């Protein structure tokens, strides 16, 4: 990868910009396992990995299964003074489904559940034909772009962090038992991190355009 090219003589389609510092480079294809980083800030720009598309698809399928299961399985149970209450993510969201706060139920389910599932589905739609050596399906570029743009709003990870903080505060007031949905979310965080480690945005865009 060549840094800071003369943009007057280079096709803009051959350029890649660092997402952190906006430095421009002429993009080149790299062998699997090699990485191209920004010389200014060190951000990884291109990082192709062997069979990365298949890995991303596998992790996306796993994430969808975990997310769907986590919606309906018990998330936690709170017990105090002989009384106990068990709740799920879906049950908590539905608790806000009446009256003027009904939009909050839609917001909770969208940010925690719907958007992560959509991102998994969009990645599968984008990469499935590419992983099988076939041309990208129609609207693959749009689907991948939406998946990337919705990433900041998919808050499954933030939900787990917020839950952990709440559990610390509840620990002194009641007995809290964690359900299978909580552990499913914890595994989901690991799956998302592994998926992200195999995603090379430039490699995916290049594959979509070449196919």
Automatic annotation (TrEMBL):
Keyword Membrane: yes
Residue ranges crossing the lipid bilayer per the database entry: 53-76, 104-131, 152-170, 176-194
Family matches, as InterPro entries: PqiA-like (IPR007498)
Annotated keywords: Membrane, Transmembrane, Transmembrane helix
Name the UniProt record assigns to this protein: Paraquat-inducible membrane protein A
Originating species: Thioclava sediminum
